[in-house]
Specification:
Layout lengths: L2 H5 L3 H18 L1 E2 L5 E2 L2 H22 L7 H5 L26 E3 L4 E3 L2 E7 L8 E8 L6 E7 L6 E7 L6 E9 L2 H8 L1 H6 L8 E3 L4 E5 L1
Parallel strand pairs: 4-11
Antiparallel strand pairs: 1-2, 3-5, 5-8, 6-7, 6-9, 9-10, 9-11
Helix pairs in contact: 2-3
């Protein structure tokens, strides 16, 4: 069950409203208009308990991490975000940010499985590049999807996964020449469990495209 998708659906509101109605019925003790049904004390307590349970479940699902806020839903990126400059002592040894192209393009809709493609200049010796995704408007977790291995012309392609329907993601390339950073980025478990952030010694070197999972 995808709790992120449920938290972005009307279900939490429906559960909470249903719980409030049951609690009110339990307090009033009567149901109906012209034909009134008086509830016994045990039934009142039963309705009260069910109502509180529905309210609690609705609130928990609504507050589940990863839910899209109203601001996230209303903001539509108009430009491609570029990463900050990387200092000379960062150890990331990035390629130039100019000329790097990634698809799917910014502000597009994607399926669960996509093939990310693009072009990148030749990487300096010892530098490795990886395609990564993360939830939009966050600093993590980061999910490495695979290593970018450009051809002689700089073209590359890598399979990418976007798990949660309706969620917004960012896709970008990071590079590093440091052994520990490249080990984390190339570890298959990192693509499943995620990394708390872009590893130390690695840097985002491409535009950051924001995508919406269909």
């Amino acid at each position: 069950m995808d709790l992120v998708a449920l938290s972005n659906s009307p279900l939490p509101v429906v559960l909470a409203l249903g719980g409030i109605i049951l609690v009110l019925f339990a307090i009033i003790g009567r149901v109906g208009g012209n034909i009134r049904i008086t509830l016994s004390k045990p039934r009142q307590w039963l309705l009260f308990g069910i109502g509180l349970l529905l309210i609690t479940v609705g609130v928990i699902i609504y507050a589940y991490p990863g839910r899209l806020t109203q601001e996230d839903q209303l903001v539509t990126p108009t430009t491609t975000t570029l990463p900050p400059n990387v200092g000379p002592d960062s150890g990331a040894a990035p390629a130039a940010t100019t000329g790097i192209v990634i698809t799917p393009p910014n502000d597009s809709t994607v399926q669960k499985y996509e093939t990310a493609t693009g072009s990148i200049a030749a990487l300096p010796p010892g530098v490795r590049a990886f395609i990564c995704v993360r939830a939009a408007s966050t600093e993590g977790p980061v999910f490495p999807q695979g290593e970018v291995s450009p051809s002689e012309t700089g073209a590359w392609s890598t399979e990418v996964t976007f798990e949660s329907p309706g969620a917004r993601y960012e896709i970008f390339i990071v590079t590093s020449s440091q052994e520990e950073a490249t080990r984390l980025l190339s570890d298959p478990n990192s693509g499943i469990a995620g990394l708390p952030k872009v590893p130390d010694g690695a840097a985002i070197v491409s535009p950051i495209n924001t995508l919406t999972r269909e």
